[in-house]
Design brief:
The structure is a single chain. This protein is α+β, with helices and mostly antiparallel strands. It has a domain at 4-37 and 204-292 and 471-532: FAD/NAD(P)-binding domain. The chain has helices spanning 14-23, 51-54, 101-109, 117-127, 154-165, 197-202, 254-264, 270-275, 309-313, 316-329, 414-431, 453-463, 515-532, and strands at residues 4-10, 31-34, 64-65, 78-79, 128-130, 144-148, 181-184, 186-187, 189-190, 193-194, 211-214, 217-225, 228-236, 239-251, 267-268, 282-283, 289-291, 295-302, 341-345, 356-361, 377-384, 391-394, 405-407, 442-445, 464-466, 498-500. The strands form seven sheets. Strands 1, 2, 11, 12, 13, 14 and 26 form a seven-stranded mixed beta sheet that branches. Strands 7, 18, 19, 20, 21, 24 and 25 form a seven-stranded antiparallel beta sheet that branches. Strand 1, helix 1 (14-23) and strand 2 (31-34) form a beta-alpha-beta unit. The chain starts with a strand and ends with a helix.
């Protein structure tokens, strides 16, 4: 192995895979990609429902948990993060969702030049290979397939009609900058199998002579000399190694991992670092702050006369039919993304654009990992797209093997509490439509007897869970912002030759699922890095 590299990329998740592809396209640059997890060889990675096997299973998951949260009535939540080539794209919901034009225009208006929707749309298109659309908003030339799901459920079609009944129109494109409407989600799949970032961006180029990929390598710290990032210390098979950079080090370890690496390197709040046994080398108090996530409220309605996955899977014959359909057609329930049908709308008239997202599922269960209910039911999950609650990520010691604290502070902001209450009322309105009356829906969770706002808010804490979209912990912003960690070039404030490129740089969370924006961030980072030379 070479000891000196032009670019060292830490983390081979969605962003790291894109960066490795784009930076190694020029053979004059020598690239090292360091990944803590294994190669993406596990057969269940490509099976869409395989994510259920990996959640809280340390085969390819870090196995994190959130700290107990007052907003969840003291509950702690499992917090899966991919530990494998492809990162979270190897275990996520596969939904392709860019967010709204105003999300990115908002980043720009905070002083981050070049981050408005019109600037970023070409970068979304660069990596996209859309199954149907080729126009001003979409491309069919990129590496990442964006396709229709290979399934259709009568009950979901009725939910679509119910949404139409209450004024939510069907859309054929959630990704043109205005996602208000309803429809089936597009997903990152090919022929009913998961298409992770590793499969899309790494597999075609992993044999390039100028790219070296090291897996099962734990980064201990980034080394600084006179405020310049010069090398990375990492461990492979119990042996410590040092990789030196002639150019830049790019941290792409995600909103949890990037924080941990920076703090272990002495980059963060000095007083806090002292307290956990780390010598501070660069004061940057925003590292680990500004954590944002999408919390979903999982309402469940029992049904009569509907075919759901609960009904199909409760008999051996039904399970066999599901398996046979996937084996021979690569379609059906095994090809399902965790959520199949989406609705983007407004929880109340107080909002000028869609502020909630429905993930509608033709199934129900008490919690992920547990068996499906024996009764027929549909899950109507609703999440607040732009929460105002903020949390943090902090290491607990100077030991790289100790999991950090992930404190989300869900529902700590009064505005989020109101959106949560309004979301349940909105879900009830959806299910009380004339078209849904055919199935006699009965509210199982939180329960139709719960009517007061105070009671609803209490029950929200019991039935809500994350949809695993942590962002913002190394936020982008001006140097005058004490909480900003990187500038609009993604360079760490006050340091040279160190950038961060992943979901942690988002100043504010996007109004939808976050994988597509993270891939875009990596495209933007690669563009800026290459423009420098």
């Amino acid at each position: 192995m070479r000891e000196n590299w032009d670019y060292i990329i830490i983390g081979a998740g969605s962003a790291g895979c894109v960066l490795a592809n784009r930076l190694s396209a020029n053979p004059k640059y020598k690239i090292l990609l360091i990944e803590a997890g294994k190669k993406d060889k596990h057969p269940l990675i490509r099976v869409p429902v395989g994510y259920l096997y990996f959640m809280s299973n340390k085969v390819i998951d870090w196995g994190y948990n959130t700290a107990p949260d007052d907003g969840l009535n003291g509950r702690s939540l499992p917090y899966p993060r991919g530990k494998v080539l492809g990162g979270c794209s190897a275990i996520n919901g596969m939904i392709y969702s860019r967010g709204q034009r105003q999300d990115f225009d908002g980043w720009r208006d905070l002083g981050n030049q070049g981050w408005g929707w019109d600037n970023l749309l070409p970068l979304f298109k660069k990596s996209e290979n859309h199954h149907r659309l080729k126009d001003q908003n979409h491309s069919q030339l990129g590496e990442l397939p964006v396709v229709e799901q290979r399934l259709s459920w009568d009950i979901l079609n009725h939910v679509e009609q119910a949404a139409n009944e209450i004024g939510i129109e069907t859309t054929n494109d959630f990704n043109d900058g205005d996602n208000e409407g309803c429809g089936y989600f597009d997903v990152n799949q090919i022929n009913g199998s998961r298409y992770s970032a590793a499969r899309a961006f790494l597999d075609p180029i992993k044999h390039r002579d100028n790219l070296t990929i090291v897996t099962q390598a734990t980064v201990h710290k980034i080394n600084l000399t006179d405020k310049v990032a010069t090398s990375v210390s990492y461990e492979v098979n119990g042996v410590m190694k040092t990789a030196h950079s002639n150019g830049e080090i790019i941290v792409s370890a995600g909103s949890i991992g990037s924080v941990q690496i920076l703090q272990l390197s002495g980059i963060g709040d000095a007083e806090f670092l002292h307290a956990v046994g780390v010598e501070p080398v660069h004061q940057l108090p925003g590292v680990g702050q500004n954590l944002q996530d999408h919390l979903q409220i999982r309402t469940i309605f029992k049904l009569d006369g509907a075919q759901t996955l609960n009904d199909m899977s409760k008999s051996l014959w039904g399970k066999m039919k599901i398996g046979v359909e996937y084996v021979f057609k690569r379609s059906g329930p095994i090809s399902m993304a965790p959520s199949q049908f989406g609705i983007f709308t407004r929880s109340s008239d107080a909002h000028d654009r869609a502020n909630i997202e429905y993930h509608v599922q033709p199934l129900s269960l008490e919690k992920f990992g547990e068996p499906l209910h024996k009764f027929s039911a549909v899950t109507i999950s609703v999440c607040n797209l732009r929460p105002k609650s903020r949390g943090y990520v902090k290491i607990t010691s100077n030991n790289v093997n100790d999991a950090p604290i992930i404190k989300a502070n869900y529902l700590s902001h009064e505005a989020d509490q109101q959106v949560a209450i309004d979301s349940i009322k909105h879900a009830r309105k959806l299910m009380q439509t004339k078209v849904m009356s055919e199935f006699n829906p009965r509210e199982y969770k939180p329960g139709a007897e719960i009517v007061s706002d105070a009671e609803l808010l209490k029950l929200v804490g019991d039935i809500s869970t994350t949809i695993f979209h942590p962002v913002g912990t190394c936020k982008m912003g001006k140097a005058s912002d004490d909480m900003a960690v990187v500038d609009d070039q993604l360079r760490v404030h006050g340091l040279q030759n160190l950038r961060i490129a992943d979901g942690s740089i988002m100043p504010n969370i996007t109004s939808g699922n976050t994988n597509a924006p993270i891939i875009m961030i990596a495209e933007k980072a690669a563009q800026m890095i290459l423009a420098k030379n």
